[in-house]
Design brief:
Layout lengths: L1 E7 L8 E8 L14 H13 L1 E8 L1 H7 L1 H15 L4 E5 L9 E4 L2 H4 L1 H22 L7 H4 L5 H10 L27
Parallel strand pairs: 1-4, 4-5
Antiparallel strand pairs: 1-2, 2-3
Length: 188
């Protein structure tokens, strides 16, 4: 039994990292890498995946990312999934196993392995929903539009209003004249 694992939110300037693990108990049609699906299609598949699987979704806040580093947050999320989803194999999308001996990895697994595709969709939809929800509390940033990614419009809002407590301060912006603040903790 395979547990597919994928993340959403590794690179944005604001919002959480979300990592999902999925073991499918029955077939779900039309699965693919979440980035290759429309928002409407991801939303349609979200509940189908949840109803057809054992799954676990982990959120790591901007503060967690600033404190521990993105790689440590991903590793901790994977370990939490492995503790909460019973499987004989665990496969992460990407090019590293984060020094977890029992974790396999495969580049573009989110487009070729249905369990990883399902995890990709759960992570992406969960994160997007979170960003739309917090947009109400932070109307100046238009999180519902860019979901915290470093779009030109988002950077302009940061210039105008500064960072909120949902922003990652360790992610420095050349457009704001910021220098790097040390090397982020890495597991590779």
């Amino acid at each position: 039994m395979l547990c597919g694992i994928d993340e959403a939110g590794r690179g944005p300037l604001a919002g959480p990292l979300v990592v999902a693990g999925v073991v499918l108990k029955k077939e779900v049609k039309e699965l693919n890498d979440s980035k290759k699906l429309t928002e409407k299609k991801r939303e349609e598949l979200f509940d189908k995946i949840k109803q057809s699987s054992d799954y676990h979704i982990v959120f790591k806040s901007a503060k967690d990312i600033d404190t521990k580093g993105i790689s440590t947050c991903i590793k901790e999320s994977i370990q939490e999934i492995m503790q909460n989803v019973n499987a004989s194999e665990y496969l992460m999308d990407g090019n590293t196993s984060f020094n977890i001996p029992t974790l396999q990895h495969k580049i573009k697994a989110d487009a070729s392995v249905v369990e990883v595709s399902a995890a990709s969709i759960l992570a992406k939809v969960s994160r997007d929903r979170y960003m739309c929800e917090i947009a109400k509390a932070f109307p100046n940033y238009n999180f519902e539009k860019h979901k915290g990614y470093g779009t030109k419009a988002h950077i302009e809002k940061i210039k105008e209003f500064g960072r909120s407590n949902e922003h990652r301060v360790s992610f420095r912006l050349k457009d704001l004249g910021e220098e790097k603040i040390g090397v982020q903790k890495s597991l590779f």
